[in-house]
Amino acid sequence: MSHDDCIFCKITKGEIPSAKVYEDEKVYAFLDLSQVTKGHTLVIPKEHAKNIYEISSESAGELFSRVPKIANAIKETYGAIGMNVLNNNEAPADQSVFHIHLHLIPRYGKGDGYSSNWTTHGDNYSQEDLQKIAGEISSSIK
């Protein structure tokens, strides 16, 4: 997909309307249309990057540095008692718009409409297994 076809790039340029929460020269935040919980906000870099694998360190720093102030504004405005910060990368991880974005999903207690139930497999790994996995990942960091 070219950047010209990217729905989030069009939103940052004002070509598609959005419910803007925050904007500066590098970052744009707007309400997610799904509103999983009240105040569910997407935070995106204005610079197009497909996902966490393609975003530059500089753009990632700009993106992530804005999250606390936006999250705190949501918390203060609606009295959220928690916040899920979620990022999906590639279709198998449920990424549906291929412009990196962070979901800020405020939490209001059980039954607020969001569930992050996943299966844990900690019992399947010994400390030695974990050390081996950590070493393998570390050796790939460039």
UniProtKB/TrEMBL annotation:
Taxonomic lineage of the native organism: Bacteria, Bacillati, Bacillota, Bacilli, Bacillales
Pfam annotation, one family: HIT
PANTHER family assigned to the protein according to its UniProt record, in alphabetical order: ADENOSINE 5'-MONOPHOSPHORAMIDASE HNT1 (PTHR46648:SF1), HIT FAMILY PROTEIN 1 (PTHR46648)
Ranges for domain HIT: 7-115
Superkingdom classification of source: Bacteria
Name by which UniProt lists this protein: HIT family protein
Signal peptide: none
InterPro entries: HINT (IPR039384), Histidine_triad_CS (IPR019808), Histidine_triad_HIT (IPR001310), HIT-like (IPR011146), HIT-like_sf (IPR036265)
Entries under CDD domains matching the protein: HINT_subgroup
Motif Histidine triad motif positions after renumbering to this chain: 99-103
